[in-house]
Amino acid sequence: MRSPSSSTGSKSTGSSTAGGSPAGFGLSSEARNLHWLLTNLVEEVPGLLSVAVVSSDGLLLLSSDPARNNEQAVDNSSGPKGSSADLATIVSGLGSLCIGAGKLMDAGAVKQTVVAMEEGSLFVMSISDGSLLGVHATPDCDMSVVAYHMALFVGRAGHVLTPELRSELRQSMESVR
Question: pLDDT truncated to tens, each residue of the chain (177 aa)?
Fold first, then answer.
């Protein structure tokens, strides 16, 4: 795994990073590191279709969506197809549902949710302060590999995802729209 200070680790030759901020200009080092972690997750884990980091209030903080990264308009006229914005909505709703279930069952905090479908898989993992990591993957992905790499991301990102950083990431995502 390459560090944020070495080469970008990106397969594309464009000047954008995961999350939609061109080359990370104007972002703090913590935000650039989170973008790097997300890019690494997407590039190192086979079968990932879309990845989103969502705040506790359901706002998209980081995205793997190529359309967002290249600052292109996203055509949602055909309905949800796995874009990071759609994934953020689903992750937020599913996260809320699971948190409610945990409370009703006196089972404690929800750590991870996995939904296996015929044509794909959905993974949701708690990060910190209600933030969530959501992954939409192919049906043939290795679920244990996806879950392992998500846990690595959460372990590395959880302690830096402060209210200030969440605010910076929100502003970064809004500037892409």
Answer: 444 444 333 333 333 444 444 445 678 999 999 999 999 999 999 999 999 999 988 899 999 875 554 333 344 444 345 577 889 999 999 999 999 999 999 999 999 999 999 999 999 999 988 899 999 999 999 999 999 999 999 999 988 888 889 999 988 888 766
| Encoded amino acid at 98, one letter | C
In angstroms, how far is the first alpha carbon of the chain from the final one? Answer: 31
User: What is this structure's pTM?
Assistant: 0.78
- Taking alpha carbons only, the member of 135, 154, 173, 165 closest to residue 37 is 154
Q: 158 Cβ partners below 8 Å, 6+ apart?
A: 127, 128
Q: Which two tokens stand for residue 117?
A: 């479908």
**What is the CA 32 to chain-centroid distance, rounded?**
14
